[in-house]
Known about the structure:
mainly alpha, elongated, 13 helices, Arc Repressor Mutant, subunit A, 3 domains
Amino acid sequence: MQRHTYATDEHQNHQESESTARQLLERAAGAEADERRRLIDEVVLLYLGLAESIARRYAGRGVERDDLLQVARLGLVAAAHRFDPSLGKDFVSFAVPTISGEVKRYFRDHGWAVRPPRRVQELAAQVSVATAEVAQTSGTTPTQAELAEHLGVEADEIREASASHDCFTAASLDYRGFNDEETSLVETLGDDEDGYDRTETMVLLAPVCRELKPRDRHILYLRFFKGRTQQEIGTELGVTQMQVSRLLTRILGQLRERVGNRPPAPGRPG
Length: 270
């Protein structure tokens, strides 16, 4: 009984607000600019709660709550300015899609950390609105199949649009899961392993290096394994730094030539 009374009161409040809004907008239609602005402002104040309700549907998806509220209010202002009372429709049925449209556009432009295709973005916004509509009608949260039927799309498209909500925010690399796990997200990510390239290079160069003269092999060892400078190598060998530079150029040229002329190893492309 109490629930029925509450629903009746809500309906009466809606009817009263709608009647007041229509009267204000009818007066605004034939008023001077300043008076029209004042009357429209009264309508906006009357329905601020509607704008806040629509903004709350999109909360927690990577856009600041105050920004959402501001956009929803701007949508309400736009609806009040565009509404034509002579068409006979009620203001709420016109204002809701207008406000929702402004919020959706804001999300398309600002709300995605990873931007999915536009069709997915648009369907994701439709799914959010449809979920609330179907839930209000049936009293339960709709399934993906019910949403697909309601929107006239395939269930796979609903799943894709629902999954796109994860694109609104990016997880921190320090994220440790819902149970504060020991391993952070960054520790589970793969990385490029350059050890394989080094191993393949050593396997390729080892045979041709063994074909070099002992002195040339020693110069390579000092430069690339011991990390000696050309000046330090020259001091050890009793030659100038310029001579070491020329020796290295010659040795590396021989290696490139011999590697290029060697037949490919079995299993390796030529």
